[in-house]
Amino acid sequence: MMIQTKPELPETGPELIQIGQTLTQALRSGLIRNQDTSLIFYDLTFLEQRIQRLTASFPPETLHGLAVKACPLARILKWTSRINQSVGVEAASAGEVMLALNCGFSPDRIVYDSPVKTREEIAFTLGKGIRINIDNLQELERIHDYIKRQGAGWKPKSSIGLRINPQVGLGSILESSVAGEYSKFGVPIRSRKQEIEKAFLTHEWLIGLHLHVGSQGCPVSMLVDGTGVLYDFMLEVNEKRMHRGFAPLSVFDIGGGLPVSYHPGSNPPVIEDYVDRIRQRAPGLFSDSFAPGADPESPEQEKNNAARSRVQLITEFGRWTFTNAGWTVSRVEYVKDDPLVKTAMLHVGADLFVRECLNPRDWQHEYAVFDAAGHLKSGVDVKPYNLAGPLCFSGDIIAREVQLPEVAEGDFLVIRDTGSYTYSMWSRYNSRQTPRIVGYYEEGARFEILRERETPEKTTTFWE
Ligand SMILES: Cc1ncc(COP(=O)(O)O)c(C=O)c1O
């Protein structure tokens, strides 16, 4: 059994003191210009540690398909494609596949997961040898047709898997939970078990299982249950496949979904513990482990061993990889004073924080205020603050009634843990310019511009 040593690495992103140092450095070095009314920062030292920790937690031959939808910045993707060969990407659309190819990922490091793949996209993916997870049984038929059309003896270079909904329940956030009784994703294991089994016993090229339980809000026990359901299915179906002379399944994609901390004291799961729990529930997925207490000679263990030597694990972590590495800063343009509440008028709102504005109950961050020179402000103002964005609708408020130090025009309002599902969800509403995005190492000792602030001329081309 492999002994995991738990690294002393933080479960949360950069501390306020580090954010302050970085902000001051960025101001001093002229990185925050007049027109930079808002910026997004990425702590690349932290991000590198996250990726190292991810790859160290799983067996070395695991492919880590970082979810592009969480953070599609080309500079970051190019960098990750170089730092570790076991890092790949999970792409949710043909556009994300193209982005990944452009950023240097070879086809076998790309996992294409769209639920609405066209025939053309399927042909492109299979032609290139990009890994693919089929979302539904109709798509399975399309792929079967494509393979038949290539002629007898043609074998796909791509690994082809089927997304199965393990139906283990919904997490605390409905819109990002996808393993309930009903889900728009995947084929449900209970009501469609016969058809699923038939697919694996008809098509030898169908070699993989894929699941994704949800994103944030799903407890580790639920994520592990999902893997367990598919693991049991794999053992069952492998025996039947072997009877037919088919190779056993060789790819097991556990999806993403590991929750992160957005608030102090939230006690997020520790990835090494998560992996230990999967190892206990599905030992055959790990080449170096036996179920605790299991007899290595038992038929059950033999089954696990038979499965393990052939299975490649894939993960698809987006939020866990990127969220805590990023923070956003906006200049405070105005402060409005109403009888019960003050409103800080910011340069980011629902354009960058669509989920936070539409569903503030489930999506909230921590905030901090720095003065115009980048010094952290302290104390608590007598009135709470609404943090309002610049967009033209009244719901453009990223947080309501938060306790903050007294905020003044020209201050910097920092929004923490914004490294995922923020810039990737940018809205074009009101034609505002996307912010400058800056990476840094060692608390601002070294900066790198990851993406320039958009010019108004560039913004207008979107509508042409
Ligand atoms: C299929 C699939 N894989 C991976 C992810 C990434 O999830 P997370 O960012 O929570 O790790 C998602 C996001 O919802 C997804 O839909």
End-to-end Cα distance, whole Å, is 60 Å
Our count of domains comes out at: 2
In DSSP terms, counting alpha (H) and pi (I) runs of 4 or more, how many helices?
Answer: 13
Overall morphology: elongated
The tally of strands reads: 19
Overview of the molecule:
The chain has 464 residues and is of the alpha/beta class. It has two domains: 45-318, Alanine racemase (TIM Barrel, Alpha-Beta Barrel), CATH 3.20.20.10; 323-461, Lyase, Ornithine Decarboxylase, Chain A, domain 1, CATH 2.40.37. It has 13 helices and 19 strands. It has helices at 16-28, 44-57, 74-83, 94-102, 119-128, 137-149, 193-202, 220-243, 271-281, 299-308, 319-322, 354-358, 456-461, and strands at residues 38-43, 63-67, 87-91, 110-112, 131-134, 160-165, 187-188, 206-210, 251-253, 312-315, 326-331, 334-337, 342-345, 367-370, 385-388, 397-402, 412-416, 436-441, 446-451. The strands form three sheets. It has an eight-stranded parallel barrel, surrounded by six helices. A six-stranded mixed sheet has the order 14-17-11-1-18-19, with helices on both faces. β5 (131-134), α6 and β6 (160-165) form a beta-alpha-beta unit. The chain is elongated. The site of pyridoxal-5'-phosphate has 15 residues, from α11.
Any key phrases for this structure?
30% helix; eight-stranded parallel beta barrel; 2 domains; alpha/beta; TIM Barrel; Lyase, Ornithine Decarboxylase, Chain A, domain 1; 464 residues; binds pyridoxal-5'-phosphate; six-stranded mixed beta sheet; disordered N terminus
Task: Give the helix/strand layout.
Elements: H1 16-28, E1 38-43, H2 44-57, E2 63-67, H3 74-83, E3 87-91, H4 94-102, E4 110-112, H5 119-128, E5 131-134, H6 137-149, E6 160-165, E7 187-188, H7 193-202, E8 206-210, H8 220-243, E9 251-253, H9 271-281, H10 299-308, E10 312-315, H11 319-322, E11 326-331, E12 334-337, E13 342-345, H12 354-358, E14 367-370, E15 385-388, E16 397-402, E17 412-416, E18 436-441, E19 446-451, H13 456-461
Parallel strand pairs: 1-18, 2-3, 2-10, 3-4, 4-5, 5-6, 6-7, 6-8, 8-9, 9-10, 13-15
Antiparallel strand pairs: 1-11, 11-17, 12-13, 14-17, 15-16, 18-19
Helix pairs in contact: 8-9
The protein binds pyridoxal-5'-phosphate.
